[in-house]
Amino acid sequence: MSELTEAEAAARADLEERARRLFAGPITFLKSAPALKFLPDPEAPEIAFSGRSNVGKSSLLNALTGRNSLARTSVTPGRTQELNFFDVGTPLQMRLVDMPGYGFAKAPPSVTEQWRRLVRDFLRGRVVLKRTLLLIDARHGIKPVDEDMMQMLDEAAVGYRVVLTKADKIKASDLAATVAATEAAARKRTAAFPQVHVTSSEVKMGIAELRAAILEDAAI
């Protein structure tokens, strides 16, 4: 990646600060939607978070917003089987959507199919959905269930950013290899951004940059 000019660096710093202030302000849980008929009115741009169960989605949401319990974390993967909406800003500026995790091994086929139908229909029909963040565990890289989700996003023509989580949990050399492999996979996808975000909720790695990207995607 080329070095930023002085003007570009200043603009990036300004965007990161605006994002920090927005996410440090009022953020409230709005509602859970187990089916499309329960979706809130499309009043603001939405950014969705998707990922395998236990990928660290709740922890990332909490880190981005500077809260400890905005999104519930659970030791039992796959508990969240609804679309959870959070209002950002007063007045409302945007919404964050915590999508149900996928890849849970113990779920019966009927639950898995219900998840697939809800997510697919949401992705295809939500006009205010500006971007989806696809979370991948940096320790494991892209798994077949992640490839299934990427395919679903490609087919829905929803632009998405790939976000590696738990990057502090592996060696730097292993992380570099995972980033390279993930970027190579993203370049083959029609709806994926080629840039991969590297984050750690625990040590706040990449959080400011991801907040700025979210603000940019929401175009607010």
Automatic annotation (TrEMBL):
Gene3D superfamilies: P-loop containing nucleotide triphosphate hydrolases (3.40.50.300). CDD domains: YihA_EngB. Its cofactor is Mg(2+). InterPro entries: G_ENGB_dom, GTP-bd, GTP-bd_ribosome_bio_YsxC, P-loop_NTPase. Keywords: Cell cycle, Cell division, GTP-binding, Magnesium, Metal-binding, Nucleotide-binding, Septation. Coiled coil: none annotated. HAMAP family: GTPase_EngB. Necessary for normal cell division and for the maintenance of normal septation. NCBIfam families: GTPase_YsxC (TIGR03598). This is Probable GTP-binding protein EngB. The lineage of its organism: Bacteria, Pseudomonadati, Pseudomonadota, Alphaproteobacteria, Sphingomonadales.
